[in-house]
Amino acid sequence: MLERFLFALGSSRGFGEAVAAQLGTTLAPLEEREFEDGEHKARPLVDPMGRDAYVIHDLYGEPGASANDKLCRLLFFVGALKDAGATRVTVMAPYLAYARKDRRTKPHDPVTSRYVAQLFEAVGTDRLLALEVHNPAAFDNAFRLPTVHLEAREVLAAAAQARLAGRPAVVVSPDPGGAKRADRFRESLEQRLGQALPTAFMEKRRSEGVVTGDLLTGDVAGRVAVIVDDLISSGTTLLRAAATCRAQGACAVLAVVTHGLFATGAEALFQAEELERVIITNSVAPRMSEHWNDKVEVVAVEGLFAGAIRRLAGMA
C-alpha cells in the first residue's frame, strides 16, 4: 500500500489496527494533542502529498469524548490532510453521529444529518463510508459527495444461524421504519438456513421520548423471534418488541443489532427474561459489559472495512 495511507484517530485506533492487519499493512503515524482549555489538534506524521488517505474514526459519545468532540477532531484532521496535498480523503465511520435525525418530525426541527454532511463537504472530504446508518436513503440524499453504506447483515446472520440450532424462526422488525432492513436480513438468513422464513412487524409510536404501540403483525407462535434493528440505545424499543413476541407465543427471542450504544436504562436488557441473546457488532466499544450476564455476543466487522478499502483502492 505504498500509494495510500490508513489513519485511525483516538479510541478508534484498536479498530483501525485490526483493519490494517487484514490489509497486511500498519496504520500511518499521526500526532494527537490535547490542550488545557479542551481544544485539540491532530496531524499526520507522514507526507500525504499525492496520496490517498483513509481515516477511520468512530463518532459515538463516550466519557471524555463527546460525539461533538470526535466530529470536530475528524473534520479538522481531514482538513489538515487536504491542506497537505492528499489526493483523496475517505472517511470511514463504524458509527456515524447524528444519522438518526434525518427529517423534521416537528415544526422547525433541525435536519442534523444534512448539516453534518455539509461540514464534511466543507473541509474537502472526497468520500464517506459508514456502517449501518439509521436510514440509508436519507444518508444518500444528505451528502453531495460519494458515499458507501456498509451492512453487517451477513456477519450477523451467521451468528444468528449458530444460535438458532435448527429451531424454526421468524424475522421481526421492531418498527415500520426498519421493515426493509429486516427483509434484507431475512434474505441472508434464509440463504444460510436453506429455507423460507416468515416476517413480522411491530407498531411503534414515539412522542417526547416515550415509545408506545404493541400491535404485532405476523405469526410468531412456536418460533424463535429474531428481532433486527440498527442500534440499541436505552433498549425500550427492543424490550417492548421482545415482550410482545413472547406474549404472542414465540418460544424464544434473539436480538440482532449492529450498534450497541447501551445508553442509560439499557441495564434492563441484560435482566430481561424475554431475551435469550443479544448479538451486536464491535462498531461501538463494549459498554455496560459488567451487566451482560453472558447474554451479549459481539461479532467483528473490521473485515467489512478492509474489504471496502480493497474495492475502493482497486486491490480486490
Short recap of the structure:
The chain has helices at residues 13-22, 67-83, 112-122, 136-142, 153-164, 179-193, 236-247, 302-312; strands at 4-8, 30-34, 40-44, 52-56, 88-93, 127-131, 147-150, 169-173, 199-202, 205-207, 210-212, 216-217, 224-232, 252-260, 277-281, 296-299.
Give structural notes.
- The chain folds into two domains: 159 residues, Rossmann fold (3-Layer(aba) Sandwich); 148 residues, Rossmann fold (3-Layer(aba) Sandwich).
- It starts with a strand and ends with a helix.
- The model has no long low-confidence stretch (mean pLDDT 92).
- It contains eight helices and 16 strands.
- Helix 5 packs across helix 6.
- With 316 residues, it is of the alpha/beta class.
- The strands form four sheets. The protein has a seven-stranded mixed β-sheet with strand order 12-9-8-13-14-15-16.
- 30% of the residues lie in helices and 25% in strands.
- Helix 7 links the parallel strand 13 and strand 14.
